[in-house]
């Protein structure tokens, strides 16, 4: 046999601490057909700075869809089926880099996904630029060993083969036809080169993670052995590996036979129903009612003929609505007939390759008036790759190589819902059958009507009122995740273990909004001292900070007077400009120079905030530059007057030192104390401290101007001119 090795690589990604699914970094690979060995090369590394510590990286694997993970231990929504993902841990301790290999023998062909993340996020709000986080990088590479000429086992035809040695297993494949109910694999004429009874092991199927249902058959000391499988995967290649358990040099000769039991599905009149559907969508036309009458009249006749078939297939139309959004419509109407003689089958097509990033929702509603037996129930099973066709015999909802998801409705419980998170890429089937407690003979002539609603949605229930559904992308692959707020958690933001109460949400909103009213004293002081431009800036900041925080609340106590992004930008702009004009006002510059710096600085601040709104230097840069201007002006005034400026000790003790202290405390709270849990009161303290520091730091009014002098400018009258110069010198 000829083996070909192939190598696939993707660029490294920077890992994040986990708080929701968007923090997990996803890698998407495609394993080709006839792959006999898959090897993952996982490379993790961290930075070399002192901020880098030992870290544990969790890596999840899954075939067919992104892995469903729950690192935080939160609750999933009701009726959701969750199977834990296969994961490993990679530790970065003293070593800067770690390399790990993961081998998978006989992997399933198709899409494979890897998700990697760091431990749970600490919840601390870090100001961009104050600290340098340690970079943790992760890269996944894939090596595959593929067999180019894998022998094909034809159904019903015995085929002789030879296992050369125990180190070289034999690989063959067989194609499973559609509507296959069962498969039987037989091994006969098995002898070794030493003319002894063979000792071999047969593995049927491929390995899929997190769960693998690979079937094993061991033939020890027996010439003939066989294995029967129920519901093999339809229209797929099934790999069979035979390995020798005997001596290393002894070859094994054997004969393999694969046979299938194929069922005959009942007719569904899908073509006539499709014509009827198009006519109903186009509206009433002449002859439309007459043309649809034969289809309706043909249904009872077909039903009588279908009772001898093994299943009743109902035609389903797939309607693509949006990205990762699909609705399934039944051509015969939302209600389907379910009998006890044979299961009713619905095909839910999810094999496009772009459907695995959402949630599959199946809802069953029993029409209780249609069931004549009080104790009868309708058992359903949702499965991938192949349907479950023996619901009346075994109700465990399992196929040959997978485990389905069971559902049931009865007269006592007439509704059932199933949510499949990140369904794997495949054909999905919904099987329904009527069961009676005293045997199938009791309800042989009974029939139930079940209304079926099936759809694929990006996020179940749109993440609820306390979550936001986000569409994530990895290269060309799209998938969705829920970002929760107000303390809610879980896959669909349905876990209220740490949820904020309505009282807490209202308190947070009131604190963050009403704390901005502390700017009123600063505005009053500015107006009293005739600093009208500064008072206008403080009013602007107070207004937009109030309504930005009213719109930024995570709960339901939210009020947005305009677009959120606009409110955020205006709040950030007002905050930085307020600091800018306050420090320049303290510098006591000439009016024309001060106002030029006001306007020029505001324009530069607006530009820098547009480039990077959360950068620390957008606030620290204007502050430091304004402080340089203020210190230079104070040194100039002190040198000119030949004494310290400001000269009054009362100014320093009762105004400047308290104002500077409040400003430093505010900066410390803003930069080092804010977390997601205490944000609503630590940020409110920031509002109060900044507003109070502004009121203390504003310089006194001009000694030649009276208090509230701005009001005198509102009336038109004669005024006596006065000299506004600060210093008068007599020339002798």
Automatic annotation (TrEMBL):
<feature type="transmembrane region" description="Helical">
    <location>
        <begin position="679"/>
        <end position="698"/>
    </location>
</feature>
<dbReference type="InterPro" id="IPR021910">
    <property type="entry name" value="NGX6/PGAP6/MYMK"/>
</dbReference>
<feature type="domain" description="EGF-like">
    <location>
        <begin position="455"/>
        <end position="494"/>
    </location>
</feature>
<feature type="transmembrane region" description="Helical">
    <location>
        <begin position="592"/>
        <end position="611"/>
    </location>
</feature>
<keyword id="KW-0812">Transmembrane</keyword>
<protein>
    <submittedName>
        <fullName>TMM8A factor</fullName>
    </submittedName>
</protein>
<keyword id="KW-1003">Cell membrane</keyword>
<dbReference type="InterPro" id="IPR000742">
    <property type="entry name" value="EGF"/>
</dbReference>
<feature type="disulfide bond">
    <location>
        <begin position="484"/>
        <end position="493"/>
    </location>
</feature>
<feature type="compositionally biased region" description="Low complexity">
    <location>
        <begin position="285"/>
        <end position="305"/>
    </location>
</feature>
<comment type="similarity">
    <text>Belongs to the TMEM8 family.</text>
</comment>
<keyword id="KW-0245">EGF-like domain</keyword>
<dbReference type="GO" id="GO:0005886">
    <property type="term" value="C:plasma membrane"/>
</dbReference>
<feature type="transmembrane region" description="Helical">
    <location>
        <begin position="652"/>
        <end position="673"/>
    </location>
</feature>
<dbReference type="Pfam" id="PF12036">
    <property type="entry name" value="DUF3522"/>
</dbReference>
<feature type="transmembrane region" description="Helical">
    <location>
        <begin position="507"/>
        <end position="531"/>
    </location>
</feature>
<keyword id="KW-0472">Membrane</keyword>
<feature type="disulfide bond">
    <location>
        <begin position="459"/>
        <end position="469"/>
    </location>
</feature>
<keyword id="KW-1015">Disulfide bond</keyword>
<feature type="transmembrane region" description="Helical">
    <location>
        <begin position="617"/>
        <end position="636"/>
    </location>
</feature>
<keyword id="KW-1133">Transmembrane helix</keyword>
<feature type="region of interest" description="Disordered">
    <location>
        <begin position="285"/>
        <end position="313"/>
    </location>
</feature>
